[in-house]
Amino acid sequence: MLERELTVSNRLGLHARATAKLVQVLAPFRCAVTLQAKGREVNAKSIMGVMLLAAGQGTPVTVRTDGVDEAEAMQAVVDLFENRFDEDA
């Protein structure tokens, strides 16, 4: 299992478009991926789950990956967060 803390840095936070992009990026991976923020832990492959976090800009989020391709999935999530979900271009 891998764990990393990231900060939501895109201006609109984990809104519908960013959440859909996250779920789409994670879909090919076989490992389990969870996000934890504000005392809640959700399945990162679930649009409704991620939306329930209501994580705005500046919210710290803990990402956990567990399974056969956990390192690749973690890198995909880190890249998405670091690129601000490709919204600030």
UniProtKB/TrEMBL annotation:
Matching NCBIfam families: PTS_HPr_family (TIGR01003)
Family: Belongs to the HPr family.
A Pfam family matched in the record: PTS-HPr
Keyword Nucleotide-binding: no
Protein's UniProt name: Phosphotransferase system, phosphocarrier protein HPr
Keyword Lipid biosynthesis: no
GO cellular component: cytoplasm
InterPro entries the UniProt entry points to: HPr (IPR050399), HPr-like (IPR000032), HPr-like_sf (IPR035895), PTS_HPr_His_P_site (IPR001020), PTS_HPr_Ser_P_site (IPR002114)
Entry keyword set: Cytoplasm, Phosphotransferase system, Transferase
UniProt subcellular location: Cytoplasm
Organism encoding this protein: Pseudoxanthomonas suwonensis (strain 11-1)
Chief site of localization: cytoplasm
GO biological process: phosphoenolpyruvate-dependent sugar phosphotransferase system
Annotated HPr domain residues: 1-88
GO MF term list: transferase activity
